[in-house]
Design goal:
By secondary structure, this protein is mainly α. It is elongated, with a radius of gyration of 22 Å. The mean pLDDT is about 85. The protein contains ten helices and six strands; from the N terminus they run ββααααααββααββαα.
Length: about 290
């Protein structure tokens, strides 16, 4: 595939970067739409931009840091430079963990309800990941093993990452499809099955980690690192899935009922409308008693 879209002087715009940006923008608007549907207050909606910035910054920093840790052997033997590592790949799990850390820090700073914001954000994150994996498809990174299939394969011709002119399992598209399916499943779960606040993040971590663990067996890019017989992502995924199960159990036991949360939002909305009405009356001058 073609990762280079066009160049303006020394700057080249890559499809991977464009799809990542598309994913982030879509995730932001999805989260905003979900907040409106939940009738969250304007104050809460105003915080979503700051929350997104914190999650993106911490996500990218931790994603890069974990990537550098996985390629330490390549740095040690000189097959890769530190500059190449900084400008090179990312590790999704580092991004997820960093994003969660950013979300926790932001919510603590603003004294906001973390679990509620994660319920809003998690499906949007899954959608963004699906867009990002389309970027992987164009770039040729995260490629699959060689395959003898005559129809279910990718063949790169201009990739700087994947072997060219070879039939490869389309792991990038498999992961993208899985992320989009996870997005729709989380929406279904929220509508039909969710009872307590905070369940979505536990469900997301479990399902994403299980799916990623299985797809890793089809990956052909060995640079992502190994821990014993498992890839780095498989090793981390075991703990991520366990953490998701613990969170889901904990939230079902101790989380706020969704009915309680909805009632709280309705009360906040009514109060805000009432306050706005009072302000309007005073501004119109009809409440002066003259």
């Amino acid at each position: 595939m073609y990762n280079d879209l066009f160049s303006i002087g020394p700057v080249t715009v890559h499809t991977y970067g464009v799809m990542t940006a598309v994913g982030i923008i879509c995730a932001y608007f999805i989260a905003m739409h979900r907040m409106k549907k939940r009738q969250m207050s304007q104050e809460s909606m105003d915080r979503i931009f700051g929350l997104a910035i914190f999650m993106i910054v911490f996500g990218y920093l931790c994603s890069k840091l974990l990537y550098i840790l996985t390629i330490i052997p390549h740095l040690a033997d000189g097959s890769m430079t530190l500059a190449g590592a900084v400008t090179g790949g990312w590790v999704i799990y580092g991004g997820l963990l960093g994003g969660l850390l950013g979300g926790i820090l932001y919510c603590r700073w603003k004294k906001a309800e973390f679990w509620e914001y994660m319920d809003v954000a998690v499906p949007a994150v899954a959608f963004a990941q699906g867009c990002g994996r389309i970027g992987c498809f164009f770039a040729g990174c995260c490629y699959g093993l060689e395959t003898d299939s005559s129809w279910f394969y990718l063949e790169f011709t201009h990739s700087a990452f994947a072997p060219n002119h070879v039939h490869l399992i389309p792991t990038e598209l498999i992961m993208s499809a899985g992320d989009f399916l996870l997005f729709f499943f989380l929406l279904f779960y929220e509508k039909k099955l969710q009872k307590k606040e905070g369940e979505l993040i536990g469900m997301y971590l479990m399902l994403y980690s299980i799916g990623r663990f299985l797809v890793e067996f089809l990956r052909g890019d060995s640079i992502r690192g190994q821990i014993g017989v498992l890839s780095t992502s498989q090793f981390i995924g075991i703990f991520a899935a366990a953490a998701g199960a613990i969170i889901l159990i904990n939230r079902r036991k101790y989380g706020r009922n969704l009915e309680e949360v909805r009632a709280l939002h309705e009360a906040e909305k009514e109060k805000a409308e009432a306050d706005q009405s009072v302000v309007s009356v005073k501004t119109d001058g009809t409440g002066d008693g003259e």
